[in-house]
Automatic annotation (TrEMBL):
Residues 65-266 form the Dienelactone hydrolase domain. PANTHER family: DIENELACTONE HYDROLASE, PROTEIN AIM2. Pfam families: DLH (PF01738). It comes from the Eukaryota. This is Dienelactone hydrolase domain-containing protein. Residues 1-20 form the signal peptide.
């Protein structure tokens, strides 16, 4: 019993130290509507091809040594919900940078109402070898212009796959969080070089149950710390575009956000 008491006391001490270092974000950190508070900046970077040597970045939050690199879904930084969620990470204590990975031409906000939109063509035009240099440019900006020392990467849907790709040796990123990622390949998952947390939807055509189980095995094989959460009553996209008038979906979106924040609080 004495040893148990000592262990409990030690856990309390560790928790108090972590809390003193970075206070736990309150529920008020996350906003689903209203005015966005960040700013867009254009980063001239002559190492980026096909982007007219400039990448637009949405920057939000106070100056800090630790930051979040926010990789959006196909709707880009133009979607208000993406900017609002980036702002939420800013309120949680992380300087946050979201690159415009689509150079001003994201997918339409309502894909189903856009019959002329070709998903296959869009994904090809923004395949990893096109988008990876944009992400690398954003990381360089964070390191050199914002003087960030440690970075966590968070990605949603399209950006979820890129989270795995970015969390590799030498990328300058310490930890990752992916919500309902799509189209990630096995080697991209198993080759991560840092801790990764995953938030999955109960109903997700792009990450069905069988594939999610494969993700879990690949994460285990990576040898890195990992954490997987499954949110009932949610579908693909809930981490950003949940119907917050539905209390179940609202809980899923908010809890996934706090899952990411606590993960970064621990590993970044």
């Amino acid at each position: 019993m004495a040893r148990i008491a000592q262990f409990v006391s030690l856990l309390g001490l560790v928790a108090s130290v972590v809390s003193a270092t970075r206070p736990i974000a309150s529920v008020s950190a996350i906003r689903h509507s209203g005015r966005t508070v960040g700013r867009e900046v254009v980063n001239a970077d002559n190492t980026v091809d096909r982007m007219s040597c400039a990448v637009t970045l949405y920057v939000t939050g106070k100056r800090s040594d630790t930051a979040v690199l926010y990789l959006t879904d196909v709707f880009g930084i133009q979607l208000p919900e993406n900017k609002l969620l980036a702002d939420s990470f800013g309120r949680a204590g992380y300087l946050t940078v979201a690159p415009d990975m689509f150079n001003g031409t994201p997918a339409p906000a309502d894909i189903n109402a856009s019959p002329d939109f070709n998903v296959t063509e869009f994904l090809y035009e923004h395949r990893p070898e096109i988008v990876d240099p944009v992400i690398a440019s954003a990381i360089r900006y964070m390191r050199t212009q914002l003087r960030v020392k440690r970075i966590g990467v968070t990605g949603y849907c399209f950006g979820g796959r890129l989270t795995f790709r970015t969390l590799t040796e030498g990328s300058g990123v310490e930890a990752g969080f992916a919500a309902h990622p799509s189209f990630a390949e096995n080697d991209e998952i198993v080759n991560i070089s840092g801790p990764l947390a995953l938030a999955a939807a109960e109903n997700d055509d792009l990450l069905p149950t069988e594939r999610r189980h494969e993700y879990e095995e690949l994460l285990r094989s990576s040898g890195q710390p990992y954490y997987v959460s499954l949110y009932s009553g949610t579908s693909h996209g809930f981490g950003v575009r949940a119907n917050v008038s539905d209390p179940v979906q609202r809980f899923g979106k908010e809890q996934a956000f706090f899952q990411a924040v606590r993960w970064f609080d621990t590993w970044v």
